[in-house]
Design a protein that fits this description.
Elements lengths: L2 H19 L3 H18 L4 E3 L11 H10 L3 E7 L2 E7 L5 E3 L5 E3 L6 E2 L5 E6 L3 E3 L4 E2 L5 H11 L3 E6 L4 E2 L13 E4 L3
Parallel strand pairs: 1-2, 1-7, 7-10, 8-11, 10-12
Antiparallel strand pairs: 2-3, 3-6, 4-5, 8-9
Helix pairs in contact: 2-3
Length: 187
């Protein structure tokens, strides 16, 4: 990674965090409802690999709760060292505070696997996204390491964003994974 790209990504992350934190609670809630409606329409019965939102990310808990009520498979990631492991989660009680205080599957309740078996779509968080599917994450590379294998298995990888997170272009490097689509939930 060149120093110029590293600095450019760091500056863009700061800017995107500020913009995302400026989103009102009403906009935040509406984006979560939009996400739920679209996923329920496009993939009503398909197993889902998702995430539990942290901070100002697009809310996912209403969608997860609906899937749990319907008995549709939900896979959630757990940070294990420098990678994500996946757990089939059946309800909110199987979650606990893990990496950086984020809700994630409790390994005592859910066996971990290397991939979300049977998932047809994967919801992917991020700080920034481009129209062409480039993604700027928090900088840990967790999703960059798993997305190529997921896409190779035919999992549809869907970035989940607010409009303020979408850019015409992002600074990228060879290791930065690309998404199939970016879903803007408030615009």
């Amino acid at each position: 990674m060149t120093a110029d790209i590293t600095a450019e990504k760091a500056a863009l992350r700061r800017q995107l965090r500020q913009q995302r934190h400026a989103i009102t609670p009403e906009q935040h809630d509406q984006a979560g409802q939009t996400l739920m409606r679209i996923i329920q329409q496009r993939w009503p019965h398909d197993h889902l690999a998702a995430y539990v939102n942290a901070g100002s990310e697009v809310p996912t808990m209403s969608l997860l709760a609906a899937r749990w009520r319907e008995g549709v498979g939900v896979w959630l990631p757990q940070v294990t060292g420098s990678t994500l492991r996946w757990c089939h989660v059946r309800d909110r009680q199987q979650l606990h505070r893990g990496y950086r205080g984020i809700l994630e599957p409790d390994p005592a309740c859910c066996p971990r696997q290397d991939s979300p078996e049977g998932a047809k779509v994967m919801l992917v968080p991020g700080l920034g996204f481009s129209h062409s599917g480039a993604r700027l994450g928090q900088g840990g590379g967790f999703y960059d390491r798993i997305l190529p294998a997921a896409r190779a298995r035919g999992v549809y990888c869907l970035g989940v964003a607010f409009a303020c997170q979408l850019r015409a272009e992002l600074p990228t490097e060879a290791h930065d994974a690309v998404l199939d689509e970016v879903l803007v939930c408030d615009g």
